[in-house]
Amino acid sequence: MHGMKHSLVTIANLEKEKIEYLIEMAQEFEKHPNRKILEGRVVATLFFEPSTRTRLSFETAANRLGARVIGFTDPKVTSSTKGETLKDTIMMVGNYADVIVMRHYLEGAALYAAEVSPVPVINAGDGANQHPTQTMLDLYSIYKTQGTLENLNIYLVGDLKYGRTVHSLLMAMRHFNPTFHFIAPRELAMPEEYKLYCREHNIRYEEHEDFNEEVISHADILYMTRVQRERFTDLMEYERVKDVYVLRAAMLAGARPNMRILHPLPRVGEIAYDVDDDPHAYYFEQAKNGLFAREAIICDVLGITLDEVRGDRTIIHV
Ligand code: CP
Predict the structure, then answer these.
(1) Residue 129 near ligand 1, beta carbon < 6 Å
(2) 131: annotated active-site residue
(3) Separation of CA 125 and ligand 1 centre (Å)
(4) 185 — phi, psi (to 5°)?
(5) What is the pLDDT of residue 148?
(6) Is the CB of 52 under 6 A from ligand 1?
(7) 77 CA from centroid of ligand 1 (Å)
(8) How far apart are CA 290 and CA 183, in angstroms?
(9) Ligand 1 in contact with 230 (CB < 6 A)?
(10) pLDDT tens per residue across span 130-182
(11) Residue 151 has what DSSP assignment?
(12) Burial zone of 282 (CB within 10 Å; 0-12 exposed, 13-18 middle, 19+ buried)
């Protein structure tokens, strides 16, 4: 099969140079998001799980670059309800499209799809495992707001057990000498496998349960997460932990001027609305950065280089 080589399944496979390269490409697309560099291509978006940002920003990226989009937002309308396997679905869509963007509820589904696919597969989230394109937009957001990815104090808050975005982020940051602080209730603590990953890659981390103004005052990046109701088998446990950490504007009085609040969104209550007008809030801009990061990722998996993007004469000036 030909898809695996160019697929983006896990952030763990991206070297430092590749991350920096994709950030440079995202910068190019932010300067000129509308081009026809993908004219004649077809992008498939297969969403076996709900999404707002990831699907719409991928589809916007494809549309703004001149590609056409096929796909589904709900597997109930596909032949998987008749028993068609993921392998056969991927083989079929690989006959129609040049690249497959897939979100799936099973950990490992993206790797499996990439292994069987004739075209590149982009992992748009597989269960509680990985969300590498979210990580690229997170890294782009961190770079834009801090001017660097190096030597930052990054506080991850909330559901660190099921939150695939924090798992991918800590793996990507291994290249940049971060200090992580994991703030979670015991039930949602960072899983041992990721702490082991930190130790193996010399990533410093501390674990806390306190979340207050003093803790926040040391952060460069405050990365809030939603408690993921859909991953709980025991809803009583969800009710117990869902509102443990709520960020309010009053807690930001001592924050560093450079500190920015990120959240992959959607939020359900962990960031109060009074934070939205605070200059440290960055989560809506972060989501906007997803368009540029995903334009870069689609082009990269299709073999379009940064030099080609820089030399592109198909820019549409609006
Ligand atoms: N951040 C994120 O993955 O959002 P959606 O679930 O809306 O795609």
Answers:
(1) no
(2) yes
(3) 9
(4) -65, 155
(5) 98
(6) yes
(7) 21
(8) 25
(9) no
(10) 999 999 999 999 999 999 999 999 999 999 998 889 999 999 999 999 999 99
(11) S
(12) buried
Residues 6 or more apart whose CB falls under 8 angstroms from that of 163 comprise 128, 156, 225, 226, 228
Q: Which of 198, 276, 208, 192 is nearest to 245 (CA)?
A: 208
Which pLDDT does position 2 carry in this prediction? 60
Does 64 qualify as catalytic in the annotation? no
Q: Name the closest-CA residue to atom 6, ligand 1.
A: 51
Active site residue 103: yes
Cβ within 8 Å of residue 230, ≥6 positions away: none
User: Could you tell me the pTM of the whole model?
Assistant: 0.95
> Known catalytic residue: 161?
no
Atom index in ligand 1 nearest the CA of residue 56 equals 8
Check if 54 has its Cβ closer than 6 Å to any atom of ligand 1. yes
And the tokens for 254? 């001592």
C-alpha span between 241 and 311 (Å, rounded) = 51
Query: Order of strands across the sheet with 99-104?
Result: 68-72, 42-47, 99-104, 121-126
- Per the residue annotation, which of 82, 186, 313, 317 is the catalytic one? 82
Question: What interhelical angle do 86-96 and 109-116 show, nearest 10?
Answer: 50
* Residue 244 in this model has a pLDDT that exceeds 90: no
**pLDDT confidence of residue 86:** 97
Q: What is the number of the ligand 1 atom nearest to the C-alpha of 55? A: 8
Question: What pLDDT, on a 0 to 100 scale, did the predictor assign at position 38?
Answer: 98
Mean predicted lDDT score pLDDT of the chain: 95
264 lines ligand 1 (CB under 6 A): yes
Q: How confident is the model at residue 231 (pLDDT cuts 50, 70, 90)?
A: confident
Q: Is 260 considered catalytic here? A: no
Summarize the confidence of residues 242-254 as an average pLDDT.
93
